[in-house]
Design goal:
The model has no long low-confidence stretch (mean pLDDT 91). The protein is built from seven helices and five strands, in the order βαβαβαβαβααα. It has a five-stranded parallel β-sheet, sandwiched between helices. The protein is an alpha/beta fold and 161 residues long. The chain has a single domain, classed as Rossmann fold (3-Layer(aba) Sandwich).
């Protein structure tokens, strides 16, 4: 297995569901984890502390505003969502500068996904380079089989390597 780049990183996790925060904290035990359950808590944390990565819910905590703040603070933003799980939100997250978009029911693999992001950053690649490998089959089951046809130009230019 590839080197664990998460070891010792400082990660902000933001979600309005306590059980999600606790699960992520357990999964990211190799990191220093700071939890926030509201937009204001997360904004304050981003403005007063240094983070390597921020894992952001979209709904309930105004995740897109937090994404913008994280990017301004040079924090790698990763979107993790259930209620906003859609092809449109996936594309929007990509276009707005998220490093990755992860469905919540795939969060058991968050360590793998965040390591992929950190390896991509280290190698100077797009952080989305393995997204289709990880989630295309899931999206095929979750959405209609031809979900990529809705925005063919976007998917044609999507970073695969």
């Amino acid at each position: 297995m590839a080197k664990d780049l998460l070891e010792g990183k400082t990660v902000l996790i933001v979600d309005d569901e306590r059980d999600i925060l606790e699960t992520l904290e357990d999964l990211l035990s190799m990191c220093k984890v700071v939890k926030a359950s509201t937009f204001d808590e997360a904004k304050r944390a981003l403005e007063t502390q240094a983070f390597d990565i921020a894992v952001l819910d979209i709904m309930g905590v105004d995740g897109y505003k937090l994404l913008d703040i994280a990017r301004q603070r040079k924090v790698i933003p990763v979107m993790l969502t259930a209620h906003a799980l859609s092809i449109d939100h996936t594309i929007s997250s990509y276009k707005r500068g998220a490093a990755l978009y992860v469905p919540k029911d795939k969060m058991a693999n968050i360590v793998e996904y965040l390591n992929d992001v950190l390896h991509a950053v280290e190698a100077g690649k797009s952080t989305w380079w393995r997204w289709l490998d990880k989630f295309e089959v899931y999206y095929n089951k979750k959405f209609e089989a031809n979900w990529k046809n809705k925005d063919e130009n976007f998917w044609r230019s999507f970073p695969y390597v």
